[in-house]
Amino acid sequence: MKKIKLLLVEDEIVLAGVVKETLEANGFHISHAENGAQGWEQYLSFRPEICVVDIMMPKKDGIALVKDIRTVDEQTPVIYLTAKSETQDVIKGLQTGADDYIKKPFSLEELILRIRTLLKRSQIANTPAAPNTNNSGVYILGTYTFDHNRQELRHEKGDIRLSLREADMLKMLAERPNATTHRRNILLELWGDDNFFNARNMDVYISKIRKYLQHDPSVQLVNVRGLGYKLVY
User: Fold this and answer.
1) What percent of the chain has pLDDT over 90?
2) Residues 6 or more apart from 160 whose CB is under 8 A from it?
3) Which end of the chain is more exposed for a tag (fewer CB within 10 A), N or C?
4) Domain extents for the chain?
5) DSSP states of the chain as a string?
6) Shortest CA distance to 30 belongs to which of 62, 12, 4?
7) 146 strand-pairing partners
8) Would you say 29 and 4 are in contact if contact means Cβ atoms under 8 Å apart?
9) Is there a contact between 96 and 60 (Cβ–Cβ < 8 Å)?
10) pTM of the predicted model as reported, rounded to 2 decimal places
11) 181, 119, 15, 104: CA torsion to nearest 10
12) What would the pLDDT profile of 105-142 be if each residue is shown by its tens digit?
């Protein structure tokens, strides 16, 4: 059975060794880098299917590394490892294009679960839908065409490549046009937990999607106070 290629970028050698050994025992093929500069070199040569990246590292931090990755690759899922609990640090990390984060100290079982969840969503998003079916994954949103499978939001003024989480969130909203999608439902579906930090992260993604839709005033992502969000078009 083909092993999933995972890039682990972590400067704490003992922690990296434990994570690497555990992931290898669970069927992953691991490439480990000790800092962001090494991580970039290994990303280019190893071509991982998912990345697990520490934020605070010497030479090049995780945020700078992920920015570099996203200039050439908008699809490979990225999970941040962070010892920081401040909301703004987590949000800054996610704004670079990461798909999830996990705070140190963490359980290896939780890390593996998050990795597998992101891989599953990524595989679904990149599996072509059968032609001429109602499950094509293509939605017409005013003057936009949203292709969930390709993670693309197309418009005459320019196409936008979406991250996996952005595409999944927009799909949830597009499937219920002009109806409220509850915040808790989004959090449980996409993050698996409705805690405070995940809620703040979701707000970041909502803001980014609103910005993407700004070329058509008839398409509005409305905040329904106390309930959730509604995509109106």
Assistant:
1) 55
2) 152, 153, 154, 212
3) N
4) 4-125, 138-232
5) -PPEEEEEE-S-HHHHHHHHHHHHHTTEEEEEESSHHHHHHHHHHH--SEEEEESS-SSS-HHHHHHHHHHH-SSS-EEEEES---HHHHHHHHHTT--EEEESS--HHHHHHHHHHHHHHHHHHTSPPPTTSTTS-EEEETTEEEETTTTEEE-TT--EEPPHHHHHHHHHHHTSTTSEEEHHHHHHHHTS---HHHHHHHHHHHHHHHHHTTT-TT-EEEEETTTEEEEE-
6) 4
7) 139, 153
8) yes
9) no
10) 0.62
11) 0
12) 899 999 999 999 888 877 755 554 443 333 568 899 99
pLDDT digits (tens, 9 = 90+) for 54-82: 998 988 999 999 999 988 888 899 999 98
Structure tokens at 97: 């294009």
Residue among 3, 48, 10 at smallest CA distance from 32 = 10
CATH fold label, 138-232: Arc Repressor Mutant, subunit A (1.10.10)
Nearest to 188 by CA among 206, 208, 169: 169
> Can you give the pLDDT at residue 99?
86
Nearest to 103 by CA among 118, 90, 119: 90
What tokens does 14 get?
């003992």
pLDDT, one tens digit per residue, over 184-193 is 999 988 988 8
Between the CA atoms of 19, 21, 25 and 29, what dihedral angle is there, to the nearest 10 degrees?
80
